[in-house]
Amino acid sequence: MQGWGHTVGALVWGLCEAPVARLWACPGSWSPEAVKALRGARAVRAVAGHGPDAIERFQALHGLAADGVVGPRTLAATGVAP
In a 3-state reduction of DSSP, which class is residue 43? Predict the structure, then answer.
């Protein structure tokens, strides 16, 4: 995935849903969103692992609606501000 040009939620989703994911950017082009997404993805993977249902598992474990959408409430549960 590109490390720039995406929302934090979209990046977290992409980094967690695939068994192997890579985040890349040209030198000097990392966005603040990409850095937040890495933190969020690490939080999700630490609790819920990875794969097609990782976001839903994370949400359910945190008492959130398990809809698979990484919105403001899910990001807050990861400790990352949107």
Answer: helix
